[in-house]
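WARN no homologs supplied; continuing
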Amino acid sequence: MDFQQPQTIFEETPTTPLVCAAQQGDRQAFGELVRHYQGAVYATVYRRLANHAEAQELCQEVFMQALRKIDQLREPESFGGWIRAIAARMAINRAVRRGPSMPADSETCEATCTPDETPLGSVLARERETQVQQGLGRLRAMDRDTLVEFYFQGRSLVEMSEKFASPVGTIKRRLHVARKRLAKELEALAPA
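OK structure emitted
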């Protein structure tokens, strides 16, 4: 699928019957929904990511997620807002995961890059990893599971929300609280 930037002319298409058909398993109806909403989804995603290739890739993931979850949409007439909300959440998760990007030319990279591994760096990294593992071991199961899922398993907030059967806002709060508790545990483990 090649997603283009949104066109300024939108066709008036009643989407409610298409949504209902897609909820009954009609792939052709879902394809029509994709064609109708791909511009809006692309615009939503591109606004967050500012990268055409990444926005196209994420648009495909958004529509795959929508296909998996379309049976959960209770109000078919709300499909437009629902798909844009999925796109916004997934774009935020992608942007948070990748972190800030700073373009650099190859000469700058060569001049500033240093070898990744030094003996001292390896020892310190292993020591930090051991401390983090010990700190995680001292946390309650919910805090530990939340941190492991997000940082070690690479789960998005939406995926965690589904796994833990909790709203995304609750998962955000749990991550915040769990990070603070882990920091306290790491302080307690730090040599004096």
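The two ends are 57 Å apart (CA to CA).
OK
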